[in-house]
């Protein structure tokens, strides 16, 4: 006790604002449940495992620690298993992980001799007791930073429900026998809570669902709320209420009153339909879910070095999949595992190692690659899924595998300052991959040693040729992913797809549904996607400095360097209504090896003439007169003269057909009827005063500042219409990017990046199941020792049938020459 009193100056009583770690070691994945428990420094409030606490003592000299150990309690009876309603694990409404309960024991430990004192004890100094009480009462920093899964799916009370005005039309809804009032649908029916009209729901991507009649009714009447018939029971909280005005599932606290208005006695109704959340879960647990997770196959769990899973923290599967793929590369393995010791990383870290990216990446690499945590779960027998016997599917058998490691500190640090990755929402794996590499690169700006993120970088060269002067310009930029459009026209099974679509239409007319086995998806070779990337592309409205006018140009894109690891991104998500990403339903035939040697750029050629430097100000219109013959012919067809003049000028009076094509493309432009602005005179069209905050908002969406200003001018300063204008005029955006590129040569183009052969072998791929990047689940497959391994969060096993045709991100490794 005297030894403890001599160290009271190294004990602090925590304030409410202090970050207190008490769930996980700062340099390893030790927890209070690990052997020896966890040691909390009573001065810095950082936590360390038994094998690492001496590192902290040697670095800081802090000798007094609170040791927390947790041991499992004996449970006399198993918990009842509930059916999941959320696509998540270990959270309310999700898959029950059946984690056993633990009891905690505490001791005060004094280093370096590990003198142990019981706690609680009245003999302890008051300062120590207050410090420990403060630690135990505080919410741990890990817990504060840990997010709950699918929080975005929690229903909010709709303001429309609180002020809903119901029509007095005498409509009474029977307890059964419902049918859509506009078609023959008898399922997926929604009753509008304003007028009682019963209509079918939205059509799904595969043709199932309804015929959109409930949505159309809202668009016609603006009646905002509808309840799904078949989900109404005595438990009104389970009823599915949808707000078309808010485009989301909502809570109606007055639902009982709203139902009574139409004579519905909810207490006697039984559930016959799935809610929207359940249907989404059901859709995600059929074909895609089963195929990507290899459900139905007996998978062999794997343990040992390189086979450590990552526990799902709630919507963190995107992070886990990307991390597994990235750490399958030799560069990241060398830099953060083979060439760095944890104690050296800790010594070099600042006072708080939880805020040091190098420390946390080293911790993560050692956790994943060492094999220390890839051991059979001690609670395997306690965690079997209740409703399915062991071995029936991959999910069940793999739950008998390992616990994995929770990347809490890494997730908290990598997401700091980022509005999305710091949140609990599901994210796009592509966006996280690029954010991850950006953070690694920034961390190495002033660091000694090679930046491991360079292994993904390459130089892209774009060649632009003016269609009139035939002069060219070259621009270069660096990238770390090759994003590929998917040309559905190149599908190798067009006949089968056409037959499927015909069969689908017939089934819909008959009110029938297709089974998963009957669905036929377009199958596009990866080679077609690569060819499409390199194919010449016509650019409209390109400003040519050679002729001082806008014309068309031909753009070709090649790679100036080939990276050590080539990441291909398949553009499976397109923007649908409301700017919501929707998934393109397609298979990609991906071979184990590819050769992209023909995609290498050749650079400027001796016989090429270059475009002059682009002037600082590019005129919106050119100072030339329209060919009266072309204008007259177009006017005779009924087009307004101002439009005819613009068409002739913009096509450089090259002919009637060219002018007609331009006019047909641009006839819906908001500024199509504005007066023509001529360079060098004072005649200008009306100019809208721009709100720079609107410009900044559009720029935050990823649009160029020049494009944002042009769109706002074209739409009278209406930001929403401006965004739609940009999306509806991709050729304008492309032309402006090229114009800007002429005078903003990439200064990093001269930086030397890894280069070599164009022959690659597939190393890993990340697959996504779900309808958009904002929902669903990610899984990673990695080739290890010439066999495929599936990493599904904490579940790791030999892959029986890797779904290579369903990938979203593909990681290729250069084949040694």
From TrEMBL:
Pfam families: UBA, UCH, zf-UBP, zf-UBP_var. The active site is at residues 317, 777. One of its GO terms (cellular component) is nucleus. One of its GO terms (molecular function) is zinc ion binding. Residues 308-815 form the USP domain. InterPro entries: Papain-like_cys_pep_sf, Peptidase_C19_UCH, Ub_carboxyl-term_hydrolase, UBA, UBA-like_sf, Ubiquitinyl_hydrolase, UBP13_Znf-UBP_var, USP. Keywords: Hydrolase, Metal-binding, Protease, Repeat, Thiol protease, Ubl conjugation pathway, Zinc, Zinc-finger. It comes from the Eukaryota. The keyword rRNA processing does not apply. Zn(2+) binds at residues 180, 183, 200, 213. It catalyses: Thiol-dependent hydrolysis of ester, thioester, amide, peptide and isopeptide bonds formed by the C-terminal Gly of ubiquitin (a 76-residue protein attached to proteins as an intracellular targeting signal). GO terms for biological process: auxin-activated signaling pathway; cellular response to gibberellin stimulus; leaf morphogenesis; protein deubiquitination; proteolysis; regulation of cell population proliferation; root hair elongation. Residues 156-266 form the UBP-type domain. Residues 625-666, 689-729 form the UBA domain. SUPFAM superfamilies: Cysteine proteinases, RING/U-box, UBA-like. Its EC number is 3.4.19.12. Recognizes and hydrolyzes the peptide bond at the C-terminal Gly of ubiquitin. Involved in the processing of poly-ubiquitin precursors as well as that of ubiquitinated proteins. Belongs to the peptidase C19 family. This is Ubiquitin carboxyl-terminal hydrolase. It comes from Physcomitrium patens (Spreading-leaved earth moss).
